[in-house]
C-alpha cells in the first residue's frame, strides 16, 4: 500500500496482531490478553463497555429493592476505587505519562488497571446512579445552582489538572501520587459530568446547556462510534508513510487533511455498515414480537 521508516512498526506489526487475535475482539474479551497482544488497541474500551453493560443487567435485578440496589452497587463502586489505588501502589503504576516514564510501566498500567472492567467500574456505576437520579427533578434556587456549578468545575479541574506536579521535567515517580490520582480522578470526572448532564436536562445549564443541546451535535453523534473505530488506523497509516522529519507546530494538533479523512471514513462506515446492521436488528426484534 505504501512505505516509510516506521511502516513495519506501526502498520505491519498491528496487522500481524490482528491476524492472530482479532477473533477475541469479536467476543469482546480482547482486553484480558494484554495490551501488547491486542488487535486495534484503542478498541479495549468496546470490550470494557460490553462487560460492564452485562454487569448493569445483573445490578438491575437488585434495584427492585432500593436499599439492596444502593448497597450492592455502592459496594462495587467503592471496591473498584480501592482496587485502582492498591494496584497502583503494589505494581508502581502510573495513569499519567510523566517525563521519562518507562515503556514497561505504561504497559503494566494498561494491563493491570486501565483495561480491566473491575478497575473501570467506578465511572460506569456512576452513570447508573445518574440514570436513576435523572428521573427526579429537584427545584433549585440560584445559590444551589451556582454551588453545583462550582463543585462541577472544581471536580473537572481536579480530574484534568490535579496531578500538575507530575508534568514537570524534574518529577520523580511517587506511587502515592499516582495511586491517589488513579483512584479518585474517575470520581471527580463522574461528579462533573453528572452535574453537567443533570443541570442541562433540567433547565439549569445556562448558556453551556444551550450549547450542548445544539442540534448540530446530532450529526457527530451518528458517526461517533465509527469515528472512534477508524481514527487510529488512519493515525498509524500517516505515521507509517512519513518519510522525512518535520517540524511540529500548534497547527499539527488539528491536522486538517487527517481529520477530514477520518470524518469521511466515519461517514462511509456508518452508512455502509452500522446503519444497515441497525436496520437488521430492528427487523429481527420486531418480527420476534
From TrEMBL:
Superkingdom: Eukaryota
Domain Acyltransferase: 23-273
Keyword Membrane: yes
Residues passing through the membrane, by range: 46-64, 71-93, 113-134, 146-166, 178-198, 219-239, 259-277
Keywords: Membrane, Transmembrane, Transmembrane helix
Single GO term (MF): acyltransferase activity, transferring groups other than amino-acyl groups
Name of the protein in question: Acyltransferase 3 domain-containing protein
Source organism: Pyrocoelia pectoralis
